[in-house]
Structure formats: C-alpha cells, structure tokens
Specification:
It is a single chain. The chain is mainly beta and 231 residues long. 0% of the residues lie in helices and 56% in strands. The chain is built from no helices and 22 strands. β18 (193-196) and β19 (199-202) form a beta hairpin. It is globular and about 45 Å long.
C-alpha cells in the first residue's frame, strides 16, 4: 500500500527569515492525521534567509538528522560542537537527556535549503552526542546509506531500528531498495519528479509504503530523494 503526502498539503510557516514546510505536525502546525510515520516524527523542509537562523534552543529524547540541499548551515551546541554542514554531509545529533543548539545560515548573501528530520529514539535518556560525516552522492542513480543503527558504510549512527538512504537520480535512471518482511518505508522527494512503485511524485511530495516488498524508483527528471526504511 502506498499513500502519497502531497507537498501542497504540508504545514507552512513563513516569517521574515524562514520559509518552512512540515510533512508532519510540528510547532504551531497540528494535524491529527499527520503526526508522523512509524518512528519518523518530523521532516521539515527549511529555507533560511542569509543571516537568519534558529537561536539557541533545547531538545530532549530525539534523533535529529540534517541534510543540506543548497548552501551552508552553521551549527553550535552545548557539547562544544561548532561546525558548518554543506551538501554531501550528514549531521546526526542525539538529544537524549538534553542538548541545546543553534542553527544559522552560514552565508550573508545566499539562502540555505535543508531537510531536518526527527526520529524517535529506541529509548529515552540516552547520552547526548553529535556526529557529522561526508556522504557524497555521485548521481549515478544508486542509493547511499546516510544513517543506520550500526553506522555501517560510512553512515552516521542513529539509536533506532531505522535506516536513511539518499539518492541523486539522473532523468531516466532507476533505483530500488528491498524491504524486509514487516518493514515500512517513507520516500521524500527533495527535488525533481520520480515514480515510486508506479506512482508519480514531485518535489516536496512524500509517500508512506507498507506491505510492500520493495521501493522501485524511476526518475522522470533529475531528482534527489530520501528513503527511510522503518520498523
């Protein structure tokens, strides 16, 4: 079964420095029909204006993964981490017992476009931690592992039985991912137009897949996608 979450139906917040769209209920946007999917709690697509950003704020008991599409994001946190996240780099922050951080556009002239993902952890009370790795996408159509429970193949380690894959697909190319029995998937289209198990999705669209043995992708245009493999 495949259920599409159209881009235009997402929650939308627009202020002077931020244009944000929420696939699931988040902040002041609340829709009881869209509270998350399996362990996936948030997919926020943010465009932050030059010089703008999120001032220091707290989180607890959440795995937070950031994937930058364009531009650069400046991160600072209460663990003492200071870093800049750029396209081709994945960031994982385990909020655990409590962490404070800020995120600002690292540029004074160009916007930063990113996806921030929240995944529920396997248990509460984890020790807060931070990880950032380079996972370049070569554009040949295959999927690369960004995050996993065991940190294999150069991925960051998340504390949940979930995997996050990314692919940059050329127009006309195909990619696929096999789902083990009892597993579910969420496909988020970051850019372009793709077919997912025969259904057409466009930039910003998401799709929940259950009772499927595989996720088959075909790019109708150059595209970038994130695929979540979930318990």
């Amino acid at each position: 079964m495949l259920t599409i979450r159209p881009a235009a139906e997402r929650g939308h917040v627009r202020i002077d420095w931020l244009d944000s769209r929420h696939s699931f209920s988040f902040g002041e946007y609340h829709d009881p029909r869209h509270m998350g999917f399996r362990a996936l709690r948030a997919i926020n697509e943010d465009v932050v204006a030059p010089g703008g950003g999120f001032a220091t704020h707290p989180h607890r008991d959440m795995e937070i993964v950031t994937w930058v599409l364009d531009g650069a994001l400046q991160h600072r946190d209460s663990l003492g981490t200071g870093s800049v996240i750029r396209p081709g780099e994945v960031q994982r922050m385990t909020a655990g017992t409590g962490i404070r951080h800020s995120e600002f556009n690292a540029s004074t002239s160009e916007p930063v476009h990113l996806l921030q993902i929240w995944i529920l952890p396997e248990r509460a009370g984890l020790e807060p931690s931070y990880e950032q790795k380079t996972v370049p996408l070569d554009g040949t159509g295959g999927l690369r592992l960004l995050a996993s429970p065991d940190g294999r193949d150069g991925s960051v380690t998340i504390h949940q039985a979930a995997e996050l894959w990314a692919g940059r697909l050329k127009a006309g190319s195909d990619a696929s991912h096999t789902l083990a029995a009892g597993r579910h998937a969420w496909l988020q289209v970051a850019r372009g137009d793709v077919q997912v198990n025969g259904q057409v999705l466009h930039a910003g669209d998401g799709a929940a897949l259950s009772d499927e043995s595989a996720v088959a992708l075909h790019a109708d245009s150059d595209a970038e996608v994130l695929l979540f493999d979930l318990a």
